[in-house]
Amino acid sequence: MNNNIVITAALTGPIAMKRDNPALPTTPREIADAATKAYHAGAAVVHIHLRDAQERPTADLAIARETMDLISEQSPVLIQLSTGVGLDTSFEDREKLVELKPRMATLNPCSMSFGLGEFRNPPAGVRRLAGRMRELGIKAELEIYDFGHIPVCLSLFEEGLLAEPLQFSIVMGVKGGMAATVDNLMFAVRSLPPGAIWQVIVIGRANLELSAIAVAMGGNARTGLEDTLYLRKGELAPSNESLIARLASVCKTLERSVATIADAEREFQLGVDPAAPQKVGAS
Predict the structure, then answer these.
(1) CATH no. of 7-271
(2) Structural domain boundaries of the chain?
(3) C-alpha distances out from residue 121 to 44, 135, 281, Å
(4) Residue range 92-102, pLDDT digits in tens
(5) What span, in angstroms and rounded, lies between the C-alpha atoms of 224 and 211?
(6) Which residues contact 258 (CB under 8 A, 6 or more apart)?
(7) Using an 8 Å Cβ cutoff, are 225 and 48 in contact?
(8) Based on the number of CB atoms within 10 Å of its own CB, is 7 exposed (0-12), middle (13-18) or buried (19 or more)?
(9) The pTM is what?
């Protein structure tokens, strides 16, 4: 049982706009400031989506570099760059983001219906991106939206394209993927390979409920304005850090420790490749 819970702050996402919640950060400076406040509220990781001047999802490398630099200037929080970006961004543009060498990045293993759109992740492109991330030493966060995505991830591992420990995000509540139910969460966790690290990502109103259940089970958890725009029914969240502080409070209520940056680095083995196990623990 994991008692050291890594909290990830999902600050922006690809869908919501400021008209949906004025607190949503969209500029590099706003995202960096939100990342700093989320870190001080308990987040060890910030999950970063990028927006252009019109608030549209973008894979622009200059915007990404500026955002990452601003975040790193303000705090030591771990940056997890999204390669999902947005449904209208080509896979080829999305995969270029890893050339900026964030310590962590997402890897979406499968194409799928996503709401009213299509989330395209072609198999050859996914293998290419996974291999490049491993070459660069970037920790892959495997975002699984349905149960069939798990064996695809295991195939990538068998090909030598992923490094242990495998890190899964169980994404629930997206139309076209798993519904946000306790039964689905339990089945997904039971389907993961031994030794896997996992967190739950719940989109919408079940965010708090299922995040609390995940924490009680010993999983990590994520929240933020990408996942829910509301602090409670009818009340918009005033900020990302308000959602992070609430999740940190849940962890403490359940007598789980909130992981520090160093805790998260150890759990995810950042910068450590299992192909060279003799280096683990070396000074």
Answers:
(1) 3.20.20.70
(2) 7-271
(3) 28, 20, 36
(4) 999 999 999 99
(5) 12
(6) 5, 7, 42, 44, 248, 251, 252
(7) no
(8) buried
(9) 0.94
